[in-house]
Amino acid sequence: MSYTYDDQNIFAKILRGEIPNTTVLETEHSLAFRDLYPQAPQHVLVIPKGPYVTFDHFAQSASDAEIVDYVRAVGEVCRREGVAEDGWRLISNAGQNGVQEVPHLHVHVLAGRRLGRMLEKG
User: Fold this and answer.
1) Choosing from 29, 57, 104, 106, which is the catalytic residue?
2) What are phi and psi of 57, to 5 degrees?
3) Better pLDDT: 64 or 84
4) Can you tell me the distance from the alpha carbon of 100 to that of 93, in angstroms, rounded to the nearest whole number?
5) CB-based contacts of 122: which residues, under 8 Å, 6+ apart?
């Protein structure tokens, strides 16, 4: 599959400092920040700083250093948010059927309440 990165997406603008964010963690290759429209009491987005559209694009194209940094950033966000004991959810949407709204890889770390089933029946 071919991936076309749109450098005008909202996360690219956040990375360039054009749009403010509430940073939770910043590393060499990753940025984590609070979601503007939280779906749970704790809702943090974690994005790579590189131009990756989806998780599979990232997994296939990112350097080993970027991958390690990103996975560890997710873990560090969970540690800082203190969510390990009560539980949390990690979501990554990809493409049209996955209802991806921003064409830049991002995962949602959601916690702070019982989250219910992963998918609605339908």
Assistant:
1) 106
2) -60, -45
3) 64
4) 5
5) none
d(CA 98, CA 33): 22
Which element (helix H / strand E) includes 58? helix 55-61
Evaluate whether 50 touches 66 at the Cβ level (below 8 Å). Answer: yes
Could you tell me the pTM of the whole model?
Answer: 0.94
Termini Cα distance of the chain? 28
Query: pLDDT tens digits, residue range 18-50?
Result: 999 999 999 999 999 999 999 999 999 999 999
What are the DSSP E strand ranges found in 71-115? 88-91, 107-111
- The neighbouring-strand residues paired with 108 are 45, 91
Please confirm, yes or no, whether 106 is among the known catalytic residues: yes
Of residues 11, 7, 9, the one with CA closest to residue 36: 11
